Each structure stands twice: as C-alpha cells, then as structure tokens.
Amino acid sequence: ITSSSGGGACTATLELQGDHADALVHVLRKEGFTDVAKSGASGNGKPQLKWNSPKKVKEEHAKIKEQQKARKLAARAFKRAESRTSEAIEESKRLQMQKTKAKIEAQLALIEDRSSEEARKLQAKYERVCQNLDQPLQN
Asked: In what order do the strands lie in the sheet with 36-38?
C-alpha cells in the first residue's frame, strides 16, 4: 500500500498520520490487522472529513452522523414519553396548584378589608385549592 500518510510501527502497533489515515485504517482493518491506531491530530477516533477525503471516509463520517442523530432523537422521544406518564401529569398539576395557592395567599395578604366581596371570593378559591391539594389528583 502506498500512501502520503506518515506514522510509525512501534510495539506491534501501526500508527498512522496524515490526510489519508482514515482510509488506511479502513483498508488495514479490512485486510485483517486489528491493532491499527491513528496518531497525531487524527488520533481522536472520529474520521476527519475534508474536501478531498476518500469515499470510504466520507461514508464512515455520514454513518457516524446518522448514528448520533438517531441517538438524539431516541433520547428526546424517551424524555417526551416520560413526561407524559400519569405520575408526571399529576405532579405537574400539583405544582401548578401550589403556585396558585401561593399567589392567592399573596393576594389575601394585600387585602385590608376581609369582609369585602373580593376577599370572600379569594378565600373560597383558596379553600378549594387547599382541598384539591389534600386529595389525590385525578386525570
């Protein structure tokens, strides 16, 4: 195999450097060599995609990108499904009621005349929210 890549053989490991290191790794592994490593700037494990990269490197790069995209989509789908469970929905409702309770408490604290119509409505709403918080929520 002739190539413009450099590198060296040390301790039974063939180390490759250069623009065509990815292609050489692919060819050598295909030929049965198992202990092939890229070194230098190309030793990060991912194929380096350049405008003049060989077809094999471009295909490997596209394959890695597709795998990463598929993993991200699967993680998003899992997170979305997890957030739609009945327990998650109940917890969301409970948190919203707690926020409503705190808001009503703040409004009641600002009302000076507790006998006004507004105060009675807020008090009734406050009692309903507290009652709902004490009971298990239903969908």
From this structure: 6-10, 13-17, 36-38
6/42 Cα distance (integer angstroms): 11
Q: Which of 84, 80, 44, 83 is nearest to 61 (CA)?
A: 44
- Which residues, other chains included, contact 105 with Cβ-Cβ below 8 Å and sequence gap of 6+? 126
Among residues 18, 14, 15, the alpha carbon closest in space to that of 5 is found at 18
Tokens matching residue 63: 């394959």
pTM to 2 decimal places: 0.41
pLDDT digits (tens, 9 = 90+) for 42-86: 555 555 556 666 787 788 888 999 999 999 999 999 988 888 888
